[in-house]
Amino acid sequence: MSNLRSGLLTVEIYNFQLNQDGAGPGARSSHAIAMVGEKAYAFGGEFKPRVPVDNTLYIFDLNELTWSVANVTGDIPPPRVGVTMASIGQTIYVFGGRDATHAELNELYSFDICTNKWTLLSTGDTGPAHRSYHSVTTDDQNIYVFGGCGVAGRLNDLWAFNVVDKKWARFPLPGDNLKGRGGPGLAAVGGKIWVVYGFAGMEVDDVHFFDPATEKWIQVETTGEKPTPRSVFSSVAVGKYIYVCGGEVDPSDLGHLGAGRFTHEVYALDTETLVWYRVEDGSGGGDHPGPRGWCAFSGGRRDGKDGLLVYGGNSPSNDRLDDMYFFAPCLD
User: Fold this and answer.
1) CATH number of the CATH domain containing 220
2) Is residue 94 within 8 Å of residue 88, measured between CB atoms?
3) Which GO terms describe its biological process (predicted)?
4) What would the DSSP string read from start to end of 105-171?
5) Residue 127 lies in a domain
6) Total structural domains in the chain?
7) What are the angstrom distances between the C-alpha of 122 and each of 99, 130, 325, 332?
8) Is residue 6, in this structure, part of any structural domain at all?
9) In what order do the strands lie in the sheet with 21-22?
């Protein structure tokens, strides 16, 4: 725990590296994780570039600090990388990714944590086109899917799946300013859907939001201690702030086969004032993830605090990681 000041933003920070016992996923990247209560569910990923590891669903108890394997039934998703997960209530949703043949996918699955049953909700021409390395976020009733790597290039479309009606809705496309991209940040804050940074053939540093009430896209100009362009970072919305942790700031010449230059930095964007703040977070200690990208991450709560769970990812040495951290900013 530390009390630190960055600009005019005072943040009390709780950083923890979490011990792990039991049969967990092990080292991997391009996987996904979602929290329900104080349990985290992990799925997908790779140890070797572009080679999916498995389709096992792992459960991590943040109180007991122990992994277990879910005994699942139903429409079990095949192995994949570049996949996303999100939770609403007692249900986890898994969308898209890339399979072992490097084909982009567009199936949407749900997993009921009470019955341990997988259900295929949509596929084919229903819903978003096939993609991987896209981003998702949620509100009370909707899962939002944005961007990613499609069959014919990077995408910039925004969709919502309503978990009550079980129907997809496609929103208007943004203008040319919001280029198709992979690995962006996506957050639902203040009734708007925010797109932050990403990789659009190069690392970019633009910020946009979509207002569902007006069905308009707006590009915003941000100020303050603005992060350098980056993608495949971990992010979470806490209150009016969007936090960005780590990510790739310079891609590898080998593309996804290699490790680019990663950062450890943490920044916060005030979505009301549009000011960025650098958050000093004790990155020199053992309770900080350090430089990495392509992590599994999820917003959630631990010890009564809202924060960001970060698990695994790719390192500057191109080795996959298996450590886990929880970051909780408490604003004054």
Assistant:
1) 2.120.10.80
2) no
3) glucosinolate metabolic process; nitrile biosynthetic process
4) EEEEEEEETTTTEEEEEE-TTSSSPSEES-EEEE-SSEEEEEEEEETTEEEEEEEEEETTTTEEEEP
5) yes
6) 1
7) 17, 12, 33, 43
8) no
9) 21-22, 66-69, 58-61, 39-43, 32-36
Residue 262: half-sphere exposure toward Cβ, Cα within 13 Å? 23
Sequential DSSP letters for 59-104 = EEETTTTEEEE---EESPPPP-BS-EEEEETTEEEEEEEE-TT--E
pTM given for the model = 0.94
**In a domain? residue 183:** yes
**Active site amino acids:** 98, 154
Query: Any bridge partners for residue 210, and if so which?
Result: 193, 217
252: domain range? 12-330
Per-residue pLDDT of the chain (332 residues; tens, 9 = 90+): 444 445 545 566 677 899 999 989 999 999 999 999 999 999 999 999 999 999 999 999 999 999 999 999 999 999 999 999 999 999 999 999 999 999 999 999 999 999 999 999 999 988 999 999 999 999 999 999 999 999 999 999 999 999 999 999 999 999 999 999 999 999 999 999 999 999 999 999 999 999 999 999 999 999 999 999 999 999 999 999 999 999 999 988 777 777 789 999 999 999 999 999 998 665 566 788 999 999 999 999 998 889 999 999 999 999 999 999 999 887 65
